[in-house]
């Protein structure tokens, strides 16, 4: 019985640990490479002095307008504006930092985190501009005057 409890404790603790693995520290200097989508950005980070690698950062916990042909035109336009906003925000940002980059392993090519510049957080700016919403507000229309 003690062995079963020990195994269960180890399994549960490793599962929790793996869910919040921040391999490179809380804040990393980064170089902006490209916006893949409104909340998905390619950057180059320095994981160790002189050691750089490319990663894709996904801004977590956001609901975004869709560019799909199945949604109202105004929602498609918001999605396009969001993409352009992210590109402009990061291009004129100056210093860029990736904060709290959560990955499963250090070999992953992507992770979830926040992108912060001298202008502030990209995630917060998208929300403030009405180009994204905090997760959990899905189902609410993006366009109030659309059919």
In words, what does this structure look like?
By secondary structure, the protein is of the alpha+beta class. Helices cover 30% and strands 33% of the residues. It has 3 helices and 8 strands. The chain has helices at 2-19, 73-91, 122-128; strands at residues 27-37, 40-48, 51-58, 62-63, 96-102, 110-117, 120-121, 133-134. The strands form 2 sheets. The protein has a 5-stranded mixed barrel. Strands 4-8 form a two-stranded antiparallel sheet. Strand 2 and strand 3 form a beta hairpin. The chain is elongated. It starts with a helix and ends in a 13-residue tail after the last strand.
Present the secondary structure layout.
Blueprint: H1 2-19, E1 27-37, E2 40-48, E3 51-58, E4 62-63, H2 73-91, E5 96-102, E6 110-117, E7 120-121, H3 122-128, E8 133-134
Parallel strand pairs: 3-6
Antiparallel strand pairs: 1-2, 1-5, 2-3, 4-8, 5-6, 6-7
